[in-house]
Amino acid sequence: MLTKFExxxxxxxxxxFHSKRPWILASLHGGVIQLWDYRMGTLIDRFDEHDGxxxxxxxxxxxxxxxxxxxxxxxKVWNYKTRRCLFTLHGHLDYIRTVQFHHExxxxxxxxxxxxxxxxNWQSRTCVSVLTGHNHYVMCASFHPKExxxxxxxxxxxxxxxxxxxxxxxxxxxxxxxxxxSEMNTDLFGGADAVVKYVLEGHDRGVNWAAFHPSLPLIxxxxxxxxxxxxxxxxxxxxxxxxxxxxxxxxxxxxxxAKQDIIVSNSExxxxxxxxxxxxxxIQTFRREHDRFWVLASHPEMNLLAAGHDSxxxxxxxxxxxxxxxxxxxxxxxxxxxxxxxxxxxxxxxTQVIPIRRxxxxxxxxxxxxxxxxxxxxxxxxxxxxxxxxxxxxxxxxDGMGRVDPVQESMRGIGTSVVFVARNRFAVLDKSNNQAxxxxxxxxxxxxxxxxxxxxxxFYAGTGNLLCRAEDRVAIFDLQQRIVLGELHTPFIRYIAxxxxxxxxxxxxxxxxxxxxxxxxxxxxxxxxxxxxSGAWDDNGVFIYTTLNHMKYCLPNGDNGxxxxxxxxxxxxxxxxxxxxxxxxxxxxxxxxIDATEYVFKLALVKKRxxxxxxxxxxxxxxxxxxxxxxQQKEFPGVALxxxxxxxxxxxxxxxxxxxxxxxxxxxxxxxxxxWYRLGVEALRQGNASIVEYAYQRTKNFxxxxxxxxxxxxxxxxxxxxxxxxxxxxxxxxxxxALYLGDxxxxxKILEGAGHLPLAYVTAKVHGLKEVADRLASELGDTVxxxxxxxxxxxxxxxxxxxCGGDWSLLRVMKGMFDGELDNMGMAAQEEEEDEAVDADWVxxxxxxxVEGMLNGDVxxxxxxxxxxxxxxxxGGWDLEDLDLPTEFGSPSTAISGRATAFIAPTPGMPVSQxxxxxxxxxxxxxxxxxxxxxxxxxxxxxxxxxxxxxxxxFMDLYMGSHSYGRGFDSVPVITMAIEKGWSESxxxxxxxxxxxxxxxxxLDDKLRTAYKATTEGKxxxxxxxxxxxxxxxxxxxxxxxxxxxxxxxxxxIAKEYVLGLxxxxxxxxxxxxxxxxxxxxxxxxxxNLQIIHLRLALNSxxxxxxxxxNFITAGNFARRYLETNPSNENHVRKARQVxxxxxxxxxxxxxxxxxxxxxxxxxGATFVPLYRGQKYVSCPYCGSHFVPTLEGQLCNVCDLxxxxxxxxxxxxxxxxxx
Length: 1219
Description:
The chain is an alpha+beta fold. Helices cover about 30% and strands about 30% of the residues. It has 32 helices and 61 strands. The strands form 17 sheets. The protein has a four-stranded antiparallel β-sheet with strand order 1-28-27-26, with no helix packed on it. The longest helix is centred in the last third of the chain and has 29 residues, at about 1040-1070. It is extended and about 130 Å long.
């Protein structure tokens, strides 16, 4: 049994496969109908309108319908697309056992415990026939797949075959009167439309199941007599052919599998059995340990079976369908229908070579599994599971065809895995001794080699080499030198595929593909959600593979994608140019033409063959969001720019690639405010002030425009912005522009004009404008505001800009291939302009329209012409009529494209702090990089940390300590530099090291010594603070070796014990009125794992407390434990001996304590009560403190960080833990 899918649920009573989709319906004893995708292993939907168990369910073979029947006496017809019940059929008077759609007519047949079978018309929603005759529960009923027959099985120990030919004839053209009369007769006497053709008697007890053979006149049945009976019928009679015995309990379900000429049955004896129809013997038995089987279903078109049992369903195949094949140059050798065949790719000629031996034993899965061919000797090895694993060696005729007697010509041997390793040598895996037996073509052993791993299969890996597969790894073994050439940890590998040059190998597991070099150096891994079937390498070094429903590609860097969908699973044999050759499950050769443009384009990008990329872009229709997204992901937005014509997409790609000129052109086409704003942001990032200015002008964003002129020191244009604000009567804009200019008189004038006389007075007074201040004071009279005396005022004067002018000086770089050649595609009309602009400078020659003219143009939009001052006063007015606008006003595309064809902007680098966290799972490194969010998520996942407040100072110390800060000019921000561990001047600038952290193991050791000292001196509060600090620092500490990791974990244990003990001791000192609790806490303190010096002090203290309270037995125990530590203090020793003597004379305790020193225990970290051996407890995932179960989910009282009882992966503080 090859299990494909399993579920866990209530008892399954009904099953049905969908004919086209990979779905299966399961009706449960709990009343729910589940719809599963057995290929993906997911539950798609559930339907739960039945009241009670649902025993029967069936898919319609063409409509989006299924039918169900249950213990609520009703039949429901559902539409799985709309996910609802369409209607309910009432009529049965007891439990409904099975339901089934007719393959052609709109009928449903149902069997019930009311001893009837009913046939329903689901289109008219009426019962068209009632079949009566059984005198006990009818357990099942089903239509014949071709004829007008129904078979039913009942607990009355009979199987009945019903002829429904009359019903079919009436169904063609019934009249209303006849139909009405028929329905009346049906209700009174049972229908005459269906008559009993045969009654089959032979079972000794009730019959649970009966089924027709799909094509032969046979019926199979199974019952409570534990027997399976085979019946044959003709036109006049039916008779019993044979009985199959083997089940040890009631047979639940039985059916024919016509393709393989077998019967499959299942039973309450927890087994599924397979029987040979012709020989009528058992072939195979599959058992479950605890689950009884109830129902079977077969897929109508595929080699799939499903069985329902007490705790779910299992979908399985009985035999492998993958054909055995071997590629040899231009020919393919493969096995089909017990023949070895040869297929030539060039001529597409398929010929039969020789017949191969049939297995002697009667069993499933005896078909050939692997095939290996030696082209020089024209020999073939065929390996199968016969006799537990065996092989056959055939020497083929030299002409490749002909009849060969296989008995004489083939040589056999035992071995689960066999492969040619040289011209006339092949290797056989001897699993019992873990050896490779090297044999010659006479099937004689010439050499034995012990394998380096415990192998369960071997594969060809070049002449003289074997690839050995173990459970969790593969290794390449040189048989001559007996050395391991390479080893790689992998999932369980099923198949391998070598590239044409033998430089790369693809290792295929069930759900993953590992690409490696010939020395097994890992290159990439691709994961799939559904089963991987086969694969082969194409001429370009791309791996083409198939899953159950897709053909896909995988590039050497791990990028993969879909080439096409598949209707049926295919097994790739060879890929040549754009043709993929495959074998299907029937062993037929197929060739599929594919479009390789997408993966060839991606491969050219990966290999940086940009000339090839350019030719593909010119000649192919590469398009689609997926390709654009791929280019963006791989940081080739400039290439993606040339694949799209949508202006909005081009704009986004241009911004991403830093191509500001194309962004300007796209923004002009789109002409939306949001796009101009984003263009301004990107241009500002690049320091291209001209474009920023242009973008702000297009959106009339005067506030941002004014600020731009301020930061670039363009005071002339600021003055013009002030005039624009005046013309617009924008008081706030006037005031801002006056402030930016530092024009205090203008500020005072604006404030005065707006009616803010007190503010105008204060401004004039503070800035020393005495005349203006006096005039305003006279106007204000008694309401003149007081200006504080003796204080130096801060004047509202803007700082002097460091750099006055336009664009930043940019790095001059060479023109990229894509930015030159591809810009010219389809632009022949612009060639002259581009030629003129080739020598344009990166910045200075960008001839954006003169801002004065641009501003005037804007003013024309906002202000009517008759409002503009066109006079020739002293200040010259706006001079609108004298403005000589350039011809390219508002369309700086010529200069822009000129710049674009000459240079491209350099790609920004990645910050060092981002490099630190790219592949790090260490929370300390994330915190040092300033990524507190990811650091906290890591701590939560690794240690269950929820309370991060105690860690805040540690986070800040790590971040500040891992960076250095340098100041530049006053008006520029502080320059931050990351400090790397182990950096030196001789190292390449591209090599990056992890961050230099301020916390290490040595600092923790120093803190530990200080904490020990405070504990010894009795400064418990200070000692507790220090131990807690150690616990709060460890999660963000990074160490080098596994030895240091062990030391850190030991530190956690020490700190936890001391924190718990010190908390109990501090609590004891706070208690004054409870003598019993004082003794208990003192006693528990002595059971913490302390240093010997502190243990002595704790024992001494507990001894004194208990002795004073009259608990002499307990005090004597402490005295005895103290003396066992061999103390050196004579006074304490003498005192302990005296106490021990006194206690031994008076063996009693005045108080009963919750303390049993004879029974091992740990102390709850929150309630401070003992948890004795055998009691349930929960623990902290970080510090390991124990707590009573009621505290699960609360914050740990010991470390004050983690949640008690939460799932966590464990402390990760070193890269050595993840290697």
